[in-house]
Amino acid sequence: MKYSFQHRCSTAVGTLVCATALLHASRAEATEPRRVVVMVEGKESEPARQEITSALAGNAVVEPSRDLSAALAQGGQRGALGASLNDPRKHDAVLSRVVAAAHTLRLDRVVVVTLGGPGHAGQARVRIVDVNGQRDTVAEVPWKRGEGAVGRKVRDEVEVTPGPSSADSATESASAPAVSPTTVDSGAPPTSPRKTDSSSKRGSIVEGALGFGAAGRRFRYSDPLSTGLRRYDLSAAPMIGVSGGVYPFASLSRTVDAGLTGGFASAVGVSSESRDGADLGTRWSRFFVGARGRWHATGAMTLGLDLAYAGETFTFEESRIDAQVPSVGYRFVRAGADVAVSFGRFGIEAAAAYDAVTAAGSVANRFPRASIGGFDFAVGPSVSLGYGFSAVAKLEYRRLVYAMHPEPGDRFVAGGAMDELYGLQGGVAYAY
Predict the structure, then answer these.
(1) Residues of the chain falling short of pLDDT 50
(2) What is the reported pLDDT for 200?
(3) Burial 30-53 (b: 16+ CB within 10 A, else e)
(4) CATH (domain of 103)
């Protein structure tokens, strides 16, 4: 069975091209509307929210707060967000969760306004989280329904409009109540920005998973006319695996990115036994390496397409029945799609792929005209543990089908065969 200018440019031209690109990028960044979520806590939260939304209208994209609330819950953040950010003991940890959740939704700013409260009667504490800079600022603003001071303060802090002219500034200063900006959280130290570049990441840049579980195999010939074509069953064997992905382009787009993926898994402590009681040393492993593209359709759903080179090897140690046991060494190109959907802290992922087999090992060698194809799928739930970690479980299944195409005179004759490999595993995943 046969498978199968140097380029130079002058310094002047290079400088001109780079300068043009930078100028274009800066103009695009300046004109792109910021994506903002507004969260207001207190007795008159709805009027305040409407005031802020009206002040930002036409200058920013104000997104619904429900997706951010769900992402925060998935990251382990519960309760009143403003109160947690205003607590110096909790501020840094809560800010990190807000930034992480906002990144997944590709937000630029999160506005958290707390109305009133002990020691702040008639005041609004306006906190602006700069998602890309990973820091926040806070200011005290007099709050009175209909005056517009909170809306103006949010608009100015979000920086969605050009600075007003001097005449406009004078008019607004005369009519607007005074505001008293303060340092972050009245005593809580500001979080040091780890990255102030406006192109900071939108989706996860690094993903990894470690899994443990049980896997099995079922191999059958159809219409076997030759003696010695043995079936094989393995109900459950311990298996451990690792997988991961790196998405270096996650910071370049709000909705679409791509990266490299890979993984390896191996069964441990597996042995097989023939019908006459002979022990057969058994090895089972699998791997894949490839590329994956992601489309962040919404804050709660991501779609993916992947193309990978993969392998599945299941072999037995040499023995007197070596020609009869189904040893395989599959190599295939895997083209697949996947979807991940989150519901607060919980989520579900599903993936399916076509396996275009390029090599199959010993079984295929016995049937020189065999053609082989297959598919696989996986599905499983997840639950967020906070700080980027999740507990995951997954049901996996792969089926490979042989069409033998025998001819008179062949040593081995069978109509076809089916190889099924399956497993259930649980583990922990991390995304940053």
Answers:
(1) 1-30, 160-201
(2) 35
(3) eeeebbbbbbbbbeeeeebbebbb
(4) 3.40.50
